Amino acid sequence: MAAALAASLPAPSAAPVVAAPTFAQIPSSMNHLVDVEIEIPVTSVQLDGMVISKIVKHGRGGSAGGACGLLVGLDLDGTLAVSNSFPLPNRAFDDDEKASKSTTRYQASMLRSLKEIQADDSVVGFYQAISLGAFYTQTLLETHAVHQERLRHGGIVVVHDVSPSATGKATFRAFRLSKAFMELYKKSNFTTTGLMGTSLTFSSILEELPVTIRTNPLLSSFLGVMSQSDDTTESSGSALCPNFNSLNLSTAGTTKSLERIIDSLDAYRNEENNLAYISRTIAREKVKVDAALQKRKDENATRVAQGMNPLPEDDVARMFKVPPEPSRLESLVLLGQIDAYAKGLEETAGTSLVKMYAAKASSAV
Amino acid sequence: MSTVPTTATVQDTSSHSITHHATPTKVTVHPVALFSILDHYLRRTNDQDRVIGTLLGTRTDSQVHVNSSFAVLHSETKELVAVDEDYLRTMYELHHKVNQKDVIVGWYSTGSNLNTNSALLQNFYTQEIAPHQAIHISLNTGLEEGQDAGVKAFVGSPVGVSSKPENCVFVPLPVELKFNESERSGIDLLTSTLSSPSSVATQPTADLEVLEQSIQSVSDMLDRVLTYVRSVLSGEVEGNQAVGRYLMDTLGAGADDLEKSGFNASLQDTLMVSYLANLVRSQAEVSSRLALATAAS
Fold this sequence. Notes:
Chain B: Component of the eukaryotic translation initiation factor 3 (eIF-3) complex. The complex is a heterodimer of chains A (365) and B (297). Chain A has 365 residues and is an alpha/beta fold. Chain A has helices at residues 2-8, 31-34, 49-60, 96-116, 138-150, 162-165, 179-187, 192-198, 217-232, 252-305, 314-319, 329-364; strands at residues 44-48, 68-76, 79-87, 123-130, 156-161, 171-177, 206-209, 211-214. In chain A, strands 7-6-5-4-2-3-1-8 form an 8-stranded mixed sheet. Chain B is an alpha/beta fold and 297 residues long. In chain B, 42% of the residues lie in helices and 22% in strands. In chain B, 35% of the residues are buried. The N and C termini of chain B lie far apart (67 Å). Chain B has helices at 31-42, 85-98, 116-128, 184-192, 207-233, 241-252, 260-296, and strands at residues 7-9, 26-29, 52-59, 63-72, 74-76, 81-84, 103-110, 135-140, 150-157, 169-173, 175-177, 200-203. Chains A and B meet through helix 1, strand 1, helix 3, strand 3 and helix 4 of A and helix 1, strand 4, helix 2, strand 11 and helix 4 of B.
């Protein structure tokens, strides 16, 4: 029995020499693709149909922290093909260390299981369900930065906006942390000088990658059958009937967007006040230090004039504690959030204008 | 092959009768479950005719909702069928961690072949989740000649004087595709790939494009209705009263509530919002540049 099963199971990591029937010669044009040494940067992301539906489903059941999960797949010639995904358990309830341990165990176990059924098992990034376009959060950036260090090609993050999907538009966008951000992150140097050196603004924290969505032939034929059957059969039960949510005239989402913008503006103002306070403190302390230093110098001058040994100058600075320069990451992230909300609002307003005029024109007929 | 998982021979299971709860009368399936099955089928090994797996979902008194599925390793010959029970348990626990509501409700296989092995597997799953009854979903991928793609759901019912696990009648159940309205757009996205030759759609799409598509499809529908109405009027086709009634109801709904003053007020609001959004964006941009510039001075 075991033998029968063993035969049907995938031989784990069978050496290619053993399992070599006649493989076709790899054409020379493809040679650079299979060369594992060459670093081909990822230029686009391709999501499988199943991944789309999995993310959408997970996002709908969205918890407060936003649904989050891992993407597995392969990259070939600059295209990162995401072939599967699995959700991560919500860890809002447990304490951190225990939760992160169990998440790691869960991840490893899941990847092993995927391998057993011959699915891809290399993690290429993660996905995050967000609402109203606000994907700039510090946790997301930090999670991504951690992934970036571990994964080949640094990994990507796919964000799926939950809110517009209710109105007939599903959005998936892929991002990667920019080099400038990673540099600063590694040194954790988000001070003004650091930001200036790399001229990092909120729009350059993440680089967007183009996303394509691909359904495999089996899935597309199946979908074809599903969407076709409603033309022939009377019962619309199992079929996909057309959807006109995008024609909805109501602008209910606008209020929420505006509220969010105001909230993040408040948060930003707070953060700016904090920063200003800290920099004022720094400036005050610096003035004190300078004054003390000057005093010491004058004293030394008189001491030298009187023929005494001068006092050391470097211990003066140690008498005062100048606070370290604050990190501006939070304010950057908040600005990014404000911008994202505003952009979303702008788009909604734009389309609703068009819709209103269309409705007016059609009612005048 | 150092780690051969423990296997359970389904045949060994005792054939004592199980007190069944109410038999489900309807099955709803979430698209994700179907897509996973298709993906699993794509990744099967060469010598596998079909793949099987476990269905996860919730059940009410008379309905079973299948929310997701995962693949299970199995091997079958003419006499024997074996499933990797350890794998099943592990996967179930993993899935359960994320979605606590979902429990095992049954199993799936591809192809529409219901044989003795299917009966054994049915028996195995029914015992796994006793006292509830396991449902079976057979998904025909439509790859074989002369068979249509489709989904069928069954419950097993014992047959014969003395019930044996390998004797089983698969009673068909009505099955429905069900998903949340908000997931609709995701499905639309996938169906939109059908029309492109390489089954690829690009993201992100602009709001206006989606709007354009919707209006286009409405316009197409109106054209279809118009042709139908014209052909009825000219006497080519006999009019269907039900269709006429629906048309009357649909087209009778006017945009009367959009009277002049309401329109203008709403227009001003929208323009204001648009202006505000632009203002906020430029302020944000300026502020981020200023942060860099103040440091420079």
